[in-house]
């Protein structure tokens, strides 16, 4: 086996082209086995095996620096740069993250997990090289799906201004996570069909040199192309035509489904773990499809992650023109939602907490200054969400909830969510965002009759005295447990409050609490800095009320154990009760 | 005079082409007079006079909806849509804002002040039209300078997916605020030189139809072009070649200088008010130019607003390769800074507070997760900054200061600023941002010896008891006045603290304050929600310390009187002292 002997790029360079093709087969076998047991980003890595071998054959990493966009094609790179064990041996699978990471290897230059950043980052590496009078190639590898993101297009536009070496490998597998959306994909198609010869060429229109490689899964063709551009004195695009999921029939056929995969049976391609039941994704889709049928102006918007809203391929078909995928283009998604809402439409934009970060200015300017009554649903804004450092859902409260005019809401159950969503779609006064709780979806069947148009009206769900617990979103259930325990310990019923609104203070209720309470605590599912609890602390700052804010410390976590993190942040029932009791003495 | 009789687009339609040309002259005369007295965005409006007349002649506003990117070309539009008085009569000059505004007229559809949003917003208007089965044209007007922004490029890419009417007028005057930067401008030049015939065409590569108008300041040619695309069933770009500043010789010659202008003498073009002295812009440039000479790896970065960093044309020349203008592309600016810092360069990105909003995700992902030791300088983050609703500098603290790893600092004087800047450039541990104070620059000549690498160490500048005043950045001077007054009233010296750091708490010092203080107040120049003061309130929440946070209410202000706003927010010395004294009783 060649792969076992690859301890770094220098070992790749020793192989013949034929041996490299065998190596590619070995890498695919290892990738397949690992994915079937461990899960991960499947399709994009399978398409990039040969190109990665060729890159390491031609270039001298780490002196030549390769930057992989969004990192979804870094597994072959990791295999060839001293990290093969993490792909060969099950006991080492967790030695590496799913993302490029300089702490793992000198062959990685950034921690990257969001799309569309590689060209701009590479421009920075190249600029520093030139300022310091150093040599070496800088190579950005970007998938076609990432091209629709604003930062990527900005980077392509800027690149020519560098006036120095920069090689941009466009890995074109004709797919984003789902199918591609946007006019530029027509141009990529034209270029593929004309063997790169079409005069109308997006990359040339951006001032860049360009070469095309039709056989993007053939090591010899790739080596030839990369050798041609090596040490280029100006920016050049190498457009390579690859096959997503190459080498595994189910993945070649069902590209969207195999972009990312959990553990599965290699023979059949079937997932090892059964379908999950109802969740916030399916509930969102079911509700919206029904609503769309009643009202032609309702439209769901995604930025290339339709399934987080439950819109699988069949559901998208069902929604027809009432479903919009703008591609990886969160800024345009929010601006479009503002435009639709301003012209009599009812848009609902569903987005991961970690990706809503990509559109702060549009939230502020296009949406909130214009008070456009669009709805945003934030998924996975929770400590129980994704746990890679680049995909955390812990920061959306400080980012969004401090933008004027936005009404940011936190339901605690399915029923509250649907009631808020329905209210938001039908109202015409405010931009509204809804932050879905983390953990398992709770459905209590209770009818929600609350009038959400009375903004910032919290609800006392258990009336008591001494201690009041304001428990937001995810942590409402925890708050309830705390209240129960406190009531026992204090021999008095404590007060439980569901605040519903993240963006404002119910000052009337907070005033009222002063009468019979000595301590108010807040619990929220996100970092404390700039968060919900601090607003309560500020309110009570000049008074005798004691306040404790529970939530997460401001830091970047990575691949964490959620229970450990909860403990470290005093977010268990026992710790909270203990902290409160300490204050009562 | 025709202009006096124009009360809406219907009056434009009554004119002959010859009369429209006379109208154009009248409009320019009015614009020139108003600009000479009132100031405003000069160049972009002068170039768009004929195109605006032609748009209103051909289309039926407001049924047909025109969206103007960044609003810098809306003055002619306002003149033709019932707001001519604000351009004809000095006493009415302030009746209108400098930006498009639906509260002023049904012919405006959004409040817009940031660039690159028009196409995506127009896509939203068009989508709502189509969902509701309505008719009418949607027209986005975007200047060439705005094309480099990610949101604009996303919008162009998405547009073809609409499969319905959308007309994008690209107003190409071959200038951004300063000269354009980016490869796509080479393509615009090629298109201008080939009368729009070049095969390689950025817009066609995005899947869009395209027509070119060489005589972009000729009413008849424009009418012909717009008539051709009216009621188009699919998105089409109308690329018009205009002259920035047309009709006023000094502005035609010195385009950058005349992008925006204060009051000036029409005959000579000379500004009425003298040059300002030393300010944070000039100080920044002077420091950086000196530093660049000592160290070739120091590089200043701007996103199309070089002069805010003091880099006028001559200074840019002096800096040479050590000055980078990425064009209007804040995301790429931050990513590049991260890339440069990661590869041994020393980047300093200078940006307006209102525009740093455009790059939250890059701050978080590219910069802070990677702990890249780049420096950002935030200009005009202050209530004393720009006062149009789209250009406020009141929100950068909640947006930036809650991102993990970032060290956000607030100097109070020129000397502190330069010391921080120098420290930041030389250190290798943290991404650092520096928020310049508002109001007049204070230079006290004091040597700054503080070691800024000891993060979050506040400084007690006046040691006292009972009340401690933590006064951040701009408001340090106000804090000093408050302390002086309180010391008189309480007959005890109060404590004054310069916190320097926005992003963290000096818990040791705050603990210490408990011993001899009953009240701690914070004063900050920005909104309170998610801000600096709330962190202090949270810290003291469980204790007996009384805390009041002074700062601004979370809201969108527009064209405000700064003294009124300060009063409304209890930010005068008298009010603060009164509030504190009320608490001492």
Please bin the fraction of helical residues of chain A: 25-40%
CATH topology of the largest domain in chain A: Rossmann fold
| Rg of Cα set of chain A | 26 Å
Strand order of the largest sheet of chain A: 9-8-10-11-13-12
User: What is the CATH superfamily label of the largest domain in chain A?
Assistant: Thiamin diphosphate (ThDP)-binding fold, Pyr/PP domains
- Structure classification of chain A: alpha/beta
Describe this structure in words.
Chains A, B: Pfam families: DXP_synthase_N, Transket_pyr, Transketolase_C. Chains A, B: Its EC number is 2.2.1.7. Two copies of one chain form a homodimer. By secondary structure, chain A is of the alpha/beta class. Chain A folds into three domains: 3-256, Thiamin diphosphate (ThDP)-binding fold, Pyr/PP domains (Rossmann fold, 3-Layer(aba) Sandwich), CATH 3.40.50; 280-435, Thiamin diphosphate (ThDP)-binding fold, Pyr/PP domains (Rossmann fold, 3-Layer(aba) Sandwich), CATH 3.40.50.970; 459-584, Rossmann fold (3-Layer(aba) Sandwich), CATH 3.40.50. Helix content of chain A is 38%, strand content 16%. Chain A has 24 helices and 18 strands. In chain A, the strands form four sheets. In chain A, strands 9-8-10-11-13-12 form a six-stranded parallel β-sheet, with helices on both faces. In chain A, strands 2-3-4-6-5 form a five-stranded parallel β-sheet, with helices on both faces. A five-stranded mixed β-sheet of chain A has the order 14-16-15-17-18, sandwiched between helices. In chain A, β5, α11 (219-229) and β6 form a beta-alpha-beta unit. In chain A, α4 crosses α11 (219-229) and α20 (476-490) crosses α24. The first copy, chain A, is globular and about 80 Å long. The N and C termini of chain A lie far apart (68 Å). The model of chain A has no long low-confidence stretch (mean pLDDT 96).
């Amino acid at each position: 086996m060649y792969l076992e002997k690859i301890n770094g790029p220098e070992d790749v360079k020793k192989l013949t082209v034929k041996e490299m093709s065998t190596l590619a087969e070995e890498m695919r076998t290892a990738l397949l086995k690992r994915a079937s047991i461990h899960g991960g980003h499947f399709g994009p890595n399978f398409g990039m095996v040969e190109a990665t071998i060729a890159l390491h054959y031609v270039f001298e990493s780490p002196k030549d620096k390769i930057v992989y966009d969004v990192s979804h094609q870094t597994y072959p790179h990791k295999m060839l740069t001293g990290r093969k064990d993490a792909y060969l041996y099950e006991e080492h699978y967790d030695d590496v993250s799913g993302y490029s990471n300089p702490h793992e290897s000198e062959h990685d230059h950034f921690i990257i997990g969001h799309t569309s950043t590689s060209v701009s980052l590479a421009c920075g590496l190249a600029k520093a090289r030139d300022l310091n009078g150093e040599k070496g190639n800088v190579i950005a590898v970007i998938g076609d799906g990432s091209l629709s993101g604003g930062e990527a297009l900005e980077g392509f536009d800027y690149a020519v201004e560098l006036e120095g070496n920069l090689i941009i490998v466009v890995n074109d597998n004709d797919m984003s996570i789902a199918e591609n959306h946007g006019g530029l994909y027509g141009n990529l198609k034209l270029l593929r069909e004309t063997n790169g010869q079409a005069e109308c060429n997006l990359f040339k229109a951006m001032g860049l040199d360009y070469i095309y490689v039709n056989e993007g899964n053939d090591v010899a063709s790739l080596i030839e192309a990369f050798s041609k551009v090596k040490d280029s004195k100006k920016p050049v695009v190498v457009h390579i035509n690859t096959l997503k999921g190459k080498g595994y029939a189910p993945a070649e056929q069902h590209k969207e489904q195999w972009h990312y995969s959990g553990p599965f049976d290699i023979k059949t391609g079937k997932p090892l773990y059964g379908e999950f039941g109802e969740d916030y994704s399916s509930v969102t889709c079911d509700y919206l499809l029904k609503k769309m049928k009643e009202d032609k102006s309702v439209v769901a918007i995604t930025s290339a992650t339709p399934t987080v809203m439950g819109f699988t391929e069949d559901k998208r078909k069902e929604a027809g023109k009432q479903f919009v995928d703008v591609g990886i283009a969160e800024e345009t998604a929010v601006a479009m939602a503002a435009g639709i809402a301003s012209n009599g439409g009812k848009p609902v934009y569903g987005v991961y907490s970690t990706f809503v970060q990509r559109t702060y200015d549009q939230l502020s300017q296009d949406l909130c200054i214009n008070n456009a009554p669009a709805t945003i649903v934030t998924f996975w804004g929770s400590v129980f969400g994704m746990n890679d450092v680049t995909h955390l859902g812990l920061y959306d409260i400080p980012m969004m909830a401090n933008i004027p005019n936005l009404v940011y809401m936190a339901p605690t159950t399915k029923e509250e969510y649907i009631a808020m969503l329905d209210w938001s779609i039908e109202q015409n006064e405010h931009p509204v965002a809804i932050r879905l709780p983390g953990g398992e979806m709770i459905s209590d069947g209770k009818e929600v009759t609350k009038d959400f148009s009375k903004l910032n009206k919290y609800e006392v769900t258990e009336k008591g005295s001494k201690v009041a617990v304001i428990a937001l979103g995810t942590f409402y259930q925890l708050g309830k447990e705390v209240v129960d325990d406190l009531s026992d310990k204090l021999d008095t019923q404590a007060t439980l409050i569901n605040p519903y609104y993240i963006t404002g203070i119910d000052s009337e209720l907070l005033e009222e609490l002063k009468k019979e309470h000595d301590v108010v605590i807040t619990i929220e599912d996100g970092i404390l800095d700039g968060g919900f609890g601090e607003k309560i602390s500020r309110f009570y700052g000049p008074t005798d009320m004691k306040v404790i804010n529970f939530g997460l410390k401001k830091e970047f976590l990575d691949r964490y154990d959620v229970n450990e993190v909860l403990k470290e942040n005093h977010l268990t029932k026992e710790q909270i009760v203990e902290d409160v009791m300490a204050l009562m003495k």
